[in-house]
Amino acid sequence: MIKTRNYSLKKFSKTLITKRYFTWFQDPVVKKFITFQPSTFEEFKHDVLDKMNSKRSIFFSILNNKKKHIGNIFIHDLNISNNSAYLGILIGDPKSRGKGAGEECIKAIAKYLYKKYNILNLYLGVDTRNLAAKKLYSKIGFIKISTFGKFRIKMVYRIFENKFILGTAQFGRIYGVTNFIKQKISKKETKNIINLCKEKKIMHLDTAEDYNFNLNFLKNNN
What we know:
This protein is an alpha+beta fold. The chain is built from eight helices and ten strands. The strands form two sheets. The protein has an eight-stranded mixed sheet, with helices on one face. A two-stranded parallel ribbon has the order 9-10.
């Protein structure tokens, strides 16, 4: 089991193959962007059992702090020799969407896969029209690497690239024991540093209120 602050990820149990779970696939929000759309409960059940028994895959249920089943994460094409795996996630419970479950659980599963299987590259596919999912994956650190089909893109989360964090203390104030000339970094130099970070896929910044760094600068830095 994998524990996060608000959720638990457990190996999927047959007891969760319920009519309630089946109704998730009738939800218009879910149906809009998934390829598997079972028409009968038996078809749905067969797919779940296939996922549970598939080799080179791990099927996790996502439970909230009240132990309610709210979604799943499916890790497939687990390739230890190539240090890679593919991820699929579904937050099926309508009341649990938009509350950070996806971000929290994906980050936890990426850490788990790295520690247990040395997975360095985590891939997924997403429909380009699913703007909320694209925004979530980009926020976590996934980047687009290819296009397939009419509306599908492939993205990857590279573990080591997302281990680097840029400190921003010197962007808004005079800071640092080696800053002998006692000058702040100029806006132009700040822009060049941030552009270099984007180029090198350094996606995370460390900041605080007393750094006096204007975060709106990032929005305007295209």
